[in-house]
Write a structure and sequence with these properties.
Blueprint (H helix, E strand, L loop, with lengths): L4 E6 L5 E3 L19 H11 L7 E5 L4 E6 L2 E6 L2 E7 L5 E4 L5 E4 L4 E7 L4 E6 L14 E2 L4 E2 L11 E3 L10 E2 L10 E6 L8 H9 L2 E7 L3 E5 L14 E2 L4 E3 L7 E3 L6 E2 L3 E5 L1 H8 L6 E6 L2 H19 L3 E2 L4
Parallel strand pairs: 15-23
Antiparallel strand pairs: 1-4, 1-13, 2-3, 3-10, 4-9, 5-8, 5-10, 6-7, 6-9, 11-12, 14-24, 15-22, 16-17, 16-23, 17-20, 18-21, 19-20, 19-22
Length: 324
């Protein structure tokens, strides 16, 4: 056992270790996995001076309640998240935490991530990172495949979570992170089987709204309220598939594949959500209405690099937390 570890007093809804995921393994049937919201992930690590790809804890709806049993460490929470820090030295007086800034925890302190607010996913990072057994150089967890950190499982109540090093008396940091884009427009590029659909159906796809259904998780998001019918068979020979693919099964309710997508699929794909908008879609809760907008591959690439540049500008705002 390490000299630095947390105990899990509550695991949360869907709590796993994640980083950027797996590369070059889809031909072996291993999906990419990784964090749902890459911007929040990288920002969580930047705040603590970690490598960009240091694994973090990703949670959905409700996060974990962790007690620091041994060691001292700095933490950061990113997203739209309600969490509380209880200090043992202050008789566990509860302090409401602020996202996008770092906090110092000492032995006996508790971090309690109660809920996400107007979003689905949030992230907890720690200075120096968690002590994990990686698979193929990735700390990501693929729960359905039982591959990756934590023996391929979600974080469980009463387990111990070790981390790599102590950090104490380091300056606390904060960053100015912009508000989430609240528009309901999700941008896509043309799918490889768009020709399976009539021009009328394609117009319907882009001009009528869809609703996020209750069937939504890290694998995919099923959409309701606007059935799309293929003019050809709803089944095709299985072929390689990517994150963001918009599959249309026989019932006409599209499925947008997310980070834990299957490596092959046998439904026609009318569109592909661009990387810039994957997290935006994934963070929308049940019942939210969306519309799709078609853009060119060139525009999608420009938006990807624009996002990279925007992040660089955000990281320039990292500064020391001013003491009260």
């Amino acid at each position: 056992m390490s000299n630095c570890y947390f105990s899990v007093e509550r695991a949360g809804i869907y709590t796993t270790f994640q980083d950027s995921g797996y590369d070059f393994l889809q031909h072996f049937g291993v999906t990419t996995g990784g964090v749902v919201d890459n911007n929040l992930f990288i920002t969580a690590n930047k705040l603590l001076g970690n490598d960009d790809n240091e694994p973090v804890i990703e949670f959905a709806y409700q996060g974990p309640r962790l007690r620091l049993e041994a060691g001292n460490v700095q933490i950061a929470v990113t997203g739209n998240v309600h969490f509380i820090i209880s200090k043992k030295s202050e008789n566990f007086r509860e302090t409401i935490g602020e996202c996008f800034q770092t906090y110092q925890l000492k032995k006996g302190d508790i971090i309690d991530i109660l809920a996400t607010k107007s979003s689905i996913y949030g992230y907890l990072s720690i200075s120096g990172g968690f002590k994990l057994n990686k698979y193929n150089n990735s700390g990501s967890t693929l729960v359905r495949s039982e591959i990756g950190s934590n023996d391929g499982r979600k974080i469980q109540e009463n387990q111990l979570i070790e981390f790599n090093k102590e950090s104490l008396n380091e300056k606390l940091k904060q960053v100015s992170f912009p508000s989430t884009d609240k528009s309901n427009v999700i941008r896509v590029i043309e799918g490889p089987q768009e020709n399976f659909f009539s021009s009328e159906t394609i117009n319907q796809f882009y001009n009528s709204p869809f609703t996020i259904s209750k069937s939504a998780d890290r694998m995919g998001i099923r959409l309701d309220g606007n059935q799309i019918t293929s003019k050809q068979s709803p089944n095709i020979p299985s072929e390689g598939i990517v994150k963001g693919s918009v599959q249309v099964p026989g019932d006409g309710n599209p499925i947008v594949l997310m980070v834990d997508h299957p490596t092959i699929g046998g439904y026609p794909k009318i569109a592909t959500v661009i990387l810039k908008d994957i997290a935006k879609l994934a963070q929308l809760s049940f019942g939210k209405e969306i519309r799709f907008e078609k853009i060119s591959i060139e525009t999608a690439e420009d938006l990807f690099y624009e996002n990279q540049n925007d992040l660089k500008e955000i990281f320039k705002t990292i500064s020391n937390v001013k003491k009260n």
